[in-house]
Please model this.
Amino acid sequence: MKTPTISALTFTLLLIFSCSSSANAQEDFLQCLYEKFHNMISNVVYTPQNSSFSSVLLNSTWNLRYTTPSTPEPQVIITPEHESQIPPVILCARDNDMEIRIRSGGHDMEGGSFVSEVPFVILDMINFSQATVDAEAKTAWVGTGATLGILYYSIAEKSPTLAFPAGFCPTVGIGGHLSGGGYGALFRKYGFAADNVIDARIVDVNGRILDRKSMGEDLFWAIRGGGGASFGVIVSFKVQLVDVPEKVTVFNIHRTLQQNATQLIHRWQYIAPKFEKDLHLYINAGRTSYLTGENSSQDGRNISLGASFKAFYLGGVDRLLSLMQESFPELGVVREDCIEMRWIQSVLYFFGIPIDSPENLLNRTISKTYVKFKSNYVQAPIPANGIEGIWKFYYEKEGENSEVIMFPYGGRMAEIPESETPYPHRNSLFSLSVELFWHEEEAQNTDKYLSWSSRIYNYLTPYVENSPRASYYNYRDLDLGVNNPKGKTSYEQASIWGKKYFKNNFDRLVRVKTDVDPKNFFRNEQSFPPLDSRFTYVDED
Model:
């Protein structure tokens, strides 16, 4: 349903909210838009008075922890259709003390793209979902409102031997994924998604639309791993596509504790980071029923636990079998375990959908659930007894829909300097993330699930990087620390969480923030604080 005209909206809001300061800000914001657009964008503006408001708000919301009755809602949602519509939104929000939250795919782990404690506007980039592929140049321009699935599908439509090194989940939004790093099956061969961004278009705090040349290399560096929401509104990325063979090989082998899963994981730590770049062998560990979808006993200690060893190889089955026999014979991989397929089919395979239906990648419907992620990095192999200690958490009720994910590093990742982009954790042995989900009927037990997540995180402390405790920015975790919701946040306070994500790169990110947004308009719970607030805005009309 289309929204009423902005002039009608402001009139209605004046009658209903005339005594509310936040309503006055909303009213002034809408009036500002009306004046700048001459009532030409009413079809992309949604307020709580609009019957479509709730559906637009919840459409791209993944984590149900941030959909409770007490969750703050935006005063306005705007879904721009062209980049020229974005500068006035920034300027009107800025001039009326309204925060902007920028939403791409809605997978933000902590709701940062659609929740704020102060009056705010959501700028939903869903209409920027096109991907334009130039197969001859091996490049693509993709809007930040697109999903990984849209990009993958668009590439495969043009060439079976081109790909892009990004994540496994096709419903993840381009904007957050690429600006925060982005890893997947190809990262040991080609690096992170952010490592393969070669240009971008961003709207800054003064409403200027900038590309790589006009924004400068410092800002371009910052938005390739440091997140975009601290610096402006990223509209699109130009990415470098990569070569893949016509056939890749995959397998997914599950081993239970009775089949020596603990010993296999322990051995994997010494092998997987040293494999050739063409092979990515990672682990999902937890309950067998969750990992395989098969029914297993849920009677106390009779719960079946284990690990799934998943391989993606840029080559044929014969070479993969040879590699596994040479380096990891304990896993017992046989030819029947392996499947040769096209790269685009492997994307579907690892997401668990039919491999001959690539059009499913265009479906951006999100399975809504309750979510908490914790991420870590490991520098030295975890001893076998340390691995055994992890299993005890999965006998508990809260571990039913959870998994430990271990991604081996090495390969191309180890060749890229830590300061090349904001993402610094390149010399890790592997990443170790604990992903926890629970269903709506368990909502009343949310505190128990969050406690379980914290307890396993604390248990891992002796085995993971702790100088400082390292975490992945795209797995946002507000437990690490937050900025002040109002007023200034000091460098020292922001460093508490910032150094965990970015190590020494945090300092450069703060300097870039100070240069491009010194008044700290683009802010959120974990945005970079500027060092100096002495600044006067200059509109670029």
Confidence is low (pLDDT under 50) at residues 1-19, 533-538.
